[in-house]
Design goal:
Elements: E1 2-6, E2 12-21, E3 25-32, E4 38-41, H1 45-58, E5 61-68, H2 75-93, E6 102-109, E7 112-119, E8 125-129, E9 136-137, E10 140-141, H3 144-156, E11 159-166, H4 170-188
Parallel strand pairs: 4-5, 8-11
Antiparallel strand pairs: 1-2, 2-3, 3-5, 6-7, 7-11, 9-10
Helix pairs in contact: 1-4, 2-3
């Protein structure tokens, strides 16, 4: 199920709602690139914290409701949220006209330093260099961050490069990655004209 969102004047907003149901997960995402309420419930506390931070630093309105087979582990839930969020982002961007397109940010978190650079190019690619010193962060497997980022990049049409330069605490390192992603998206989705930011004339 998908639906476009309209403002009080009847004009379409840069917003979209998508619902996806499989035998493993049931995900509903509402995304607005121009702000709004942030409410996240995935059943994985640390992942909720990361998605909330991502939306906050991006300046997005975001509602996520996810029910998954957590009795197995968090993999399907985390990956499928990335899929649906990426789809919602792509729908919000439409033909991607007028957007700045590029964004990058460093985020220090105590002893850790993380970095994101991205291009809303409509050409999905992920480069992820962030080995974690601990395997678990609460009820979250640290390796799932890469799965989320890959799903987001592929379904959102993002060339996404991420690196955790150093750190001793996987919580700090991962949070820095999500916050730097949010800051990078905030720049990249910003409207700065009417044309397409590409010498090709299309993204």
């Amino acid at each position: 199920m998908e639906s476009k969102v309209y403002g009080t004047d009847g004009a379409p907003l840069r917003a979209y709602t998508i619902e996806r149901k499989t035998k493993e997960t049931h995900i509903r995402v509402s995304l607005c690139l121009d702000g709004g309420e942030v409410k996240v419930s995935t059943g994985i506390g640390f992942f909720d914290h990361m998605l909330t931070a991502l939306a906050f630093y991006a300046g997005f309105g975001l509602e996520v409701e996810a029910a998954g087979d957590l009795q197995v582990d968090g993999h399907h839930t985390v990956e499928d949220v990335g899929i649906v969020l990426g789809q919602a982002l792509s729908r919000c961007l439409g033909e991607r006209k007028g957007i700045r397109r590029f964004g990058s940010a460093y985020v220090p978190m105590d002893e850790a330093l993380s970095f994101t650079a991205l291009d809303l190019s409509n050409r999905p690619y992920l480069v992820y260099d962030a080995p974690m010193p601990q395997e678990r962060i609460g009820d979250y497997d640290a390796c799932l961050t890469e799965e989320f980022m890959r799903a987001l990049a592929v379904n959102g049409g993002i060339t996404l490069h991420m690196r955790a330069f150093y750190g001793r605490n996987a919580h700090h390192m991962t949070e820095g990655l999500f916050k730097s992603l949010g800051l990078s998206l905030k720049d990249a989705v910003r409207i700065q004209g009417e044309g397409t930011t590409s010498t090709k004339g299309v993204l």
